[in-house]
Automatic annotation (TrEMBL), chain A:
<keyword id="KW-0436">Ligase</keyword>
<dbReference type="InterPro" id="IPR000120">
    <property type="entry name" value="Amidase"/>
</dbReference>
<dbReference type="Pfam" id="PF01425">
    <property type="entry name" value="Amidase"/>
</dbReference>
<protein>
    <recommendedName>
        <fullName>Glutamyl-tRNA(Gln) amidotransferase subunit A</fullName>
        <ecNumber>6.3.5.7</ecNumber>
    </recommendedName>
</protein>
<comment type="function">
    <text>Allows the formation of correctly charged Gln-tRNA(Gln) through the transamidation of misacylated Glu-tRNA(Gln) in organisms which lack glutaminyl-tRNA synthetase. The reaction takes place in the presence of glutamine and ATP through an activated gamma-phospho-Glu-tRNA(Gln).</text>
</comment>
<dbReference type="GO" id="GO:0030956">
    <property type="term" value="C:glutamyl-tRNA(Gln) amidotransferase complex"/>
</dbReference>
<comment type="similarity">
    <text>Belongs to the amidase family. GatA subfamily.</text>
</comment>
<keyword id="KW-0547">Nucleotide-binding</keyword>
<dbReference type="InterPro" id="IPR004412">
    <property type="entry name" value="GatA"/>
</dbReference>
Automatic annotation (TrEMBL), chain B:
<keyword id="KW-0808">Transferase</keyword>
<keyword id="KW-0547">Nucleotide-binding</keyword>
<dbReference type="GO" id="GO:0016740">
    <property type="term" value="F:transferase activity"/>
</dbReference>
<dbReference type="Pfam" id="PF02686">
    <property type="entry name" value="GatC"/>
</dbReference>
<dbReference type="InterPro" id="IPR003837">
    <property type="entry name" value="GatC"/>
</dbReference>
<dbReference type="GO" id="GO:0006412">
    <property type="term" value="P:translation"/>
</dbReference>
<keyword id="KW-0436">Ligase</keyword>
<comment type="similarity">
    <text>Belongs to the GatC family.</text>
</comment>
<keyword id="KW-0067">ATP-binding</keyword>
Amino acid sequence: MSAQSDLTRYSAAELADKLAAREVTSVEVTQAHLDRIAAVEPAVHAYLHVSAAEALATAADVDARRAAGEELHPLAGVPIAVKDVVVTQGLPTTAGSKILEGWVPPYDATLVERIKAAGLPILGKTNMDEFAMGSSTEHSAYGNTHNPWDLDRIPGGSGGGSAAAVAAYEAPLAIGTDTGGSIRQPGAVTGTVGVKPTYGSVSRYGLIALASSLDQAGPVTRTVLDSALLHELIGGHDPRDSTSIPEPLPGLVAAARQGATGDLTGVRVGVVRELQGEGYQPGVLARFEESLELLRGAGAEIVEVSCPHFEYALGAYYLILPSEASSNLAKFDGMRFGLRVEPTEGPVTAERVMSATRGAGFGDEVKRRIILGTYALSAGYYDAYYGSAQKVRTLIQRDFANAFEQADVLVSPTAPTTAFKLGEKLDDPLAMYLNDVATIPANLAGVPGMSLPNGLSDDGLPVGFQVLAPAKADDRLYRVGAALEALLEKNWGGPLLAKAPELEVGE
Amino acid sequence: MSSLSRDEVARVAGLARIDLTPEELDRLAGELDVIVESVARVSEVATPDVPATSHPLPMTNVFRPDVPEQPLTQEQALSGAPASEDGKFLVPQILGEE
């Protein structure tokens, strides 16, 4: 099958139109993606589990209901991949950890319930850094995911599997989760679109919690419009999540369609002074400046804003996240689910079983962060570490509040560099943490953020452009993002992913 | 602020209930010392007049409607357990000998 007629090359919105017009069936679309998965997975390894039979059964059911004239969700029949940190009834869920190997959850996350109710076939579960701790997917207990642009490079993390699956045409849509950049940074390094919604916009019920005050699930796609469609499907109030916002979502798809006209007259775009310069690759900064020119040409007013406390965000994040994670991961005690390991010598007590289980079941990064968090919360250190970090959180919120008085959206490069080589930063945790320097402030303040591809750096690898908006104003991301996407694609003559090398397809 | 010694890492790993090998302890102590030194900068701006923030969008008294829902069945609840017996989780002895 030629690339042009290949059903895996269409966006989710295009597939939805073809399904509604009955040009194709969901079984055909789903099978095309399963064939693509079979062909490229040996090279990419984006999936931890492929649920072919379940996906085809959903597709056949949707096709039958459509044939019977039933009113269906616009995305019904469009297949999707789900990050393995989201629980799925009947499908294995490991969060990338050996401690949950083989676990099959007895319930669905709210967002999975909504996906199933809308009739999207679930293709499988995507690879990730263990418990979402990492920026390269190298901390998965089940092997690396490879960047489809260059198989020797990282796909970002923690959601490298979802981003790579979408970039390699192994799924038109995927679910990610973003605690400090785990949707946006993989989007940037794989040339795809990813959105971290406002905290509370998408239910956290059924996400295996990393840091409860930072975690947020969101869409991973190839176009801004597809992200809006998926965000509207999974978002909105959920009584089972006490931090879920009890209000309707703003019109996200409408905002994306408005933005796609390319007109941003009257929109004030704030460039964050602290999120550029030292540490940012020249090619990343060059693409950023070009994107600003495009926005200016579309009628936007570009202003510079200062967020002086952002330089403390990384430090605050690496105190708050490990602290919350050390508490959330205490449930992995070898008693009710997951791995149980008995000590090799001495009495077999619950406490000693718990220590042996966690020693054997957790990987290096998880141990590192749990111990760091336990330390930060321990007597004598709490005020200096965790307490100070919470105060920095206030200062960062104030920085955002001031900046949003001068601008409707804020922008920056998503990540300081393009994809680095697998293994390059594995022995230097601090260098790995610096990948998220531009994405972390949004999580600390709860504001929404988007990354969309805005060109190739000098090394030929994709660069991401980040848009940030005030809490509950996620629609602004879609308007500005869709406008920039339309202007860029006009210049490129098509999507950025068309420039990615074709993967060797096995038979 | 004090640096994180190997003994201190061992003590905290005990609190966190994670068995570490001697090699892991050596490596973690070095890595964590660097990380703690870096993140400790937050205390520079965390002055007493700044209030703490725990959640980005604070909400209070959140309740869902008081409507009974179907809980997991006993079989579902036990489905992932490493060991079970008579419809209950089977766990090691809780207390030591003394």
